[in-house]
Every structure is written in structure tokens, then in C-alpha cells.
Amino acid sequence: MTPPTATTPLIRRTSDVDEARSALSRRRGFEEPRLSPRMREGIRRVFGEDLTADQVVDRILGEVRREGDEALLRYTEAFDGRVPDPLKVPPSTWDEALAALDPALRDALSLAADQIAAFHRKQLRTSWVDYSPDGALGQIVRPLERIGIYTPGGTAAYPSSLLMTAVPARVAGVAEVIVCAPPGPDGRVSTTVLAAARIAGVDRVFAVGGAQAIAAMAYGTDAVPHVDKIYGPGNIFVVLAKQRVYGTVAIDQLPGPTETLLVADESANPTIAAADMLAQAEHDPMASATLLTTSTDLADAVAAALAEQLPSLDRREIAAQALATNGLIAVVPDVETALDLANAYAPEHLCLLLRDPWRAVPLVRHAGGIFVGEDSPEVLGDYTAGPSHVMPTGGTARFFSPIHVQDFTKVISLAAANRAGLRRVGPAAAAIARAEGLTAHAAAMDRRLHRSND
User: Fold this and answer.
1) What is the DSSP string of 51-113?
2) Catalytic: 349?
3) Structural domain range at position 158
4) Which of the four pLDDT bands, split at 50, 70 and 90, describes residue 6?
5) Catalytic residue among 259, 348, 374, 378
6) pLDDT of residue 274
7) How many CA atoms lie less than 13 Å away from 234 in the CB half-sphere?
8) Active site residue 348
9) Neighbours of 200 (CB within 10 A)
């Protein structure tokens, strides 16, 4: 890692509100995905030519859809180095993974699962029917029958992400939960992921990753069943694949690089603020960590603390790249200005490190999650607070929500009019149908309205 200098600052700094607004109001997405040299080398190795990310995903989806397991196994071997045997991980292997887990980690995962379940049970909706003199109207809430969860591998395994999706699905009453996770160099799915699958009550686990896993869950193969909805984060190829299969199946959202935004005043602890920013930056070189503060002294202290803490991190090179590419420390006139900028950014995680953080909560319009006060760090939300840490990114918190119970259910409308109700609202329905030129619609209503009373 190259140490920061006057010409290569560790993180961008500004006291210009307009400059900060310009940086934070941009849309972050996958319209023009950039591929790393390693990704491009892998594409040439597998396909024998240079392809864009879109072309790679289209080719994989098409071949898995046409050829099923043959294509699925071919791409698994090409990208992961070997074909797992069997593709479906036996439940006995999950049990072995759970038994082999360090007891402290096993207890931590169980605690997280209990917290997640308790939080999501409060969100359950029930069916309802409203009876009136006109008949009855209502909604029937039904859980989805089968869902698929993608759990990424890459540079690390994330059992927490599996829990954050599978546990709410179970609370919602989903009948079958399957998981696809890429195998490691030994051809096996991560032990911690398998242990989490057992704790969460997953039904089936498949050792397959990448866009080919999304294709398998969307279209179905002999080995991997077709699902109703796909959940979970992944790399650019996984995200593009989810985007392509939407409509064949439902998807949760299109998660991009993770992001956190801290709003802090002079009361904040700079060491803690820097630690929170680094916790986000270590995820990915494209992760975003931002501090908006009313205190110049705090801004200086946090910048110094970042430089002090960074060298001790195992993933310091990743964190340094994230800070240099997407990090920001901005000094603003007041908390209201900071929150106005935060709303323009619509961050995945919004952390309020303020003397009176609850006064700021009503001003928040757009965020995936709000973390109130220094004792409520985002890391708590990542693992054991209870809300799902699968949250909208890239500005999509303006219209998306974190994973919640309703993501695993659907609503069926119910209408049961009687003769009185038909006479009251039927003529209006026939009039609207005639105005739209749908005379068969109008006739279907008129025949009921004018039939003899028997």
C-alpha cells in the first residue's frame, strides 16, 4: 500500500457544500460496469475472447437455459476450477459444518438468528375480509412457495447475509428455501455458510455461484429447481444476471457496492468515527465511506485517525482504495445541511453521531437504515441488531426498502359482491366500460343488472 502524501491524499476533503452536494447527489449504478484486469483475464480464459460484462451474462444465461445442468457444470468448472461432487450439498455436511464450528461462533450465529426472527415477527401481516351490506372485500396474504438465496463467496464468505435473508423467509412462512453458494478452491461451500444454512432452516444448498447460479434458479435445471424469487448480493455478473431474469422470476433488488454516511457534530469520538468508516471501506474497493460534520476539528481528527488505524487492518489495501476512490469528509454549516445532503445521497447506512441524535431522525427521508447514536454502530446492524442488513444501495433507498417479511409474501385480492352491492356500483362499472369502448365488459355487467330476480 502506498502511504498517503500531499499529492495522494488518503481521503477527499472539502468545506464547500456545493462540492459535497455534487459528489453525493450522483447516481451510483451498473449502467457502464468497469471490469478489473483480473476479470478481463478470466473472461478471455473461459470464452477465448474479450467480452463485455453484458455479453458474458447473456451468454451464460442463454446456455444454461438451453442446456441445463450441462452448461451449469461446465461454467462451474471453468470459473471455480472444479465441479463439486455432488452439486447438491448433502444435509449431513451441514451438520458436520455446524458441529465443527467454534462454539463461540456457533452461539453468535444462533443469537443473530434469534434477533432477526424476533424483529421480523413484528412485521407479519394477516389476511383480512371486510363484510358489509354490499358483500365482502379483502386481501389474502400468502407466502411465496420457493425462494432462492444467492450467497457470494469471492474474497470472503458471508454467513450473516444468508441469515439476514433465510430467517425472514422462514418467519414469513415460505415453504422451501434453497441456497446457491460458490465452491471454494477445494470444491466445497464455506463451512460457516453451511452452518448458517442449518441454523436458518434452509431446505437445500447447491455448490454453484456466479451468473450461472442465477440462471439455474431462474430457469430451473434437473439439479437446481426453479424458484419464484431470487435474493442476495453478488458481483457485477450476478447483479446483471438478476436484472436480466427479472420477469421470469421476481428479484429483491440490485445491490451495488456498500456505503455508509456518518453525520457527526463536535461531540463525536473521532476514533470511533474513523473505525466506522474503515469498517465499511474494507468490504470492497468500490465501497463508499462518508463523513459530514459541523466541526472542522472533528474532520481533522477523523482524517488523522483513519491514517493511524488503516495500517493495522488485514484488508488495508482494499480499504485504502475505497477511501481514495469513494471516501469523503465534508465540513458543513449545521446538522440540517448535513441531513439535506444525506437525503440527496440516500445512503444504505446512515449513522447519527450527534449529541442529540433523536432530534435528527425526523429529518431523514431517504436511507436504508438509521443507526442512532455512538452505541448503535452499523456493525451491530450488520450482525445482531435484528433488522436485515440487506439494504438498498446506489441511491435506491429513495424507493427501495431493506429486506422485510413482505418481500417473501404476495397479496391476493378478494371480491364477493351480493345483489345489493352489484346494483350500487355495477352501473358505474358498465358506464366506464362503455367509455373505454369495451362493450363486452359493459354487456357482462348489464346482463347481471337486468336479469330477472329468481
Assistant:
1) --HHHHHHHHHHHHHHHTHHHHHHHHHHHHSS--SSSBPPHHHHHHHHHHS-HHHHHHHHHHH
2) yes
3) 91-251
4) very low
5) 348
6) 97
7) 28
8) yes
9) 25
